[in-house]
Amino acid sequence: MSQVHWRCGFLALLCIVCGLYLHGSPLNQQWLIWGHRNSWFSDQFWLFVTQWGDAAQALLLLLTLCMLRPINLAWVLKTWLMGMIATPLLKVALDAQRPLSVLDPQLLLAIGQTPMGGHSMPSGHSLTAASMAALLFFSLERDRVVWRGVLILVGLIALSRLAVGAHWPADVLVGLGLGLLLVLCAQLWEQVQPWAQHLASDRAQRLMLVLMLLLIYLVWRPPSEGWGMDGARCVITLGVLATLARYRSHKRMGQKLKGGWNG
After folding, report:
1. CATH topology of domain 3-262
2. Which of 156, 161, 188, 197 counts the most CB atoms within 10 A of its CB?
3. What is the mean pLDDT of the chain?
């Protein structure tokens, strides 16, 4: 593993340790309540931002960006597969209560259909955001402007889980750490058992297209909680459909050129 991977691993463990420590501290409640008393953005803004941490929407975006990069695509799929298994198991094992099931609802300015019960830690949206950032960091060219934009988005997604009243600060920290850790595990898994060669086949590409169409359906299936949520879904859907149309156009052009050369 490179020095960058070691640093990423250290940051992941630091987030997890700090989150677990904060979970048993009174600061966990105090910070959440303080944040709801000093909200700086509108409800629809937070609904727009938090939607980008939705697992289906983030996976849809990553599949679109990494579709022509088999090794990056393998990292994405393995990260999401492990996340789908690890997140619910950890939620049950840690058994942390949601803020609205512990605090007086008048202390929080809940936004949208905020979960009342169930298990709180780790934050799935924060895990997704950190995974998305790490995958983009290792998969794409590290342009400073783009990377700063990604970091700002990840930070806003993490804060949005506090703003809507769905999670504690501790949940968010643990989720961020686990997201980074899962990406590192996915890369190690790919070294031991590579999928890249299989994902480069035409059959795999067709399956990815079917998966992406299914994800678009899953993104739009939940009922709307406001125009902020619908706006986020529209942006990602239109972006994915435009990218797919461009991909199909380039592929057809390549097939025509290949046919002309063979002729």
Report:
1. Vanadium-containing Chloroperoxidase; domain 1 (1.20.144)
2. 161
3. 85
